[in-house]
Automatic annotation (TrEMBL):
UniProt-annotated stretches for the region Disordered: 164-185
Pfam families noted in UniProt: Cytochrom_C
InterPro entries for this protein: Cyt_c-like_dom (IPR009056), Cyt_c-like_dom_sf (IPR036909)
Source species: Campylobacter majalis
Protein name: Cytochrome c domain-containing protein
Domain Cytochrome c: 78-160
Leader sequence segment: 1-19
Cited Gene3D superfamilies: Cytochrome c-like domain
Domain of life from the UniProt record: Bacteria
Polar residues biased stretches: 172-185
Keywords for the protein's UniProt record, in alphabetical order: Heme, Iron, Metal-binding, Signal
Amino acid sequence: MKKFTSLSLACLFVASAFAANEVYYIKANGEFGKQLSEIAKQYANDNNTKVEIFVDEDPRKYKDTRILKTGVNKKGHYSASLGKELYEKDCASCHGINAEKRMGKTALKDMSAKDIEDSMIMYRNDSSFGGSMRTVMQNKAKTISNSNLGAIIAHLKGKDAFASEINESENKPVSTQKQQGSYLR
């Protein structure tokens, strides 16, 4: 345990010695991940530095296995933490840090996940879609991948933003019980 602690602190020290704008992602699972995050938090607290610990899947390795990759994969596991980074970098300057600014008819915070996805698809495919800022959004929509859009939606609407849509679209068992006025259900 002492070797682990000293090695972790050495890594943190070396990482903090580099330029402040470099970010390091370390994937650690289970109990080891918990211990490493506690050490990093303690080190940051002791040295008055900032550390962010993300506990979720790494979407940078997310592979969309659908045959037709249209739109956001509703069953995809997107990272809300990556979505926050992307939103702050690509969207917040116009839409506000809390998605409260209304650039079109409705602010993003008041739109459903499906509406946000549909709007991005329309900006990508229809040059007449949108208001006075449509050229900005059309260019932005073409640079944001479906995976990154899924992450942004996970940040804005939560990881289960598409859950109700998935449940509605799945096949339901067929009932063979006869009822008045119906043949098969």
